[in-house]
Amino acid sequence: MRFCSGASALRRYLSDASYFLYLAHLPIVFVLQVLLMNVPLHWSLKFPLIVAIALGVLLAAYHSLVRRTFIGELLNGRRYRKSHAVAVETASIAELANVTKRYSKTIALDGISLRVAPDELLAVLGPNGAGKSTAIGLWLGTLQPDDGVARVMGVSSVRGE
Hints:
The chain has 161 residues and is an alpha+beta fold. It folds into two domains: 2-76, no CATH class; 94-156, no CATH class. 44% of the residues lie in helices and 18% in strands. It has a four-stranded antiparallel β-sheet, covered by helices on one side. A hairpin with a 2-residue loop joins strand 1 (94-103) and strand 2 (106-116). Helix 2 crosses helix 3 (43-66). The longest helix has 27 residues, at 9-35. The chain is elongated, with a radius of gyration of 24 Å.
């Protein structure tokens, strides 16, 4: 869990490239096997050689031919600029900052702070009356907080702000 929890440009890049690698690896591995079939090496040397060459060819093809094209956008769900650096976003997608919400005498949320970062998955679990729907309503802007701030993509969901 510790390895996968933080933002990493390398992990993001490999994650984006993985679907292309999955789709394109079979023909490349087949061609390499045919080319190396008559080379007098033991299989324990040929196998890692084929894997390393195939991975290098696939990553080079992905980076130079696929990543910034329409196909890369379809595979990754996003468009990348022509820069060579992979940007890691740190701004929050949704945030509740010290939010309190009351329904007459009932306190639904009492000073809750919650931040959802990019590439995070949020599951909202709890018993009836715990404030799950209220928190979502605050993010959507269908409810207004009594205190605190609800933001989505850095913009306050409070009307008039």
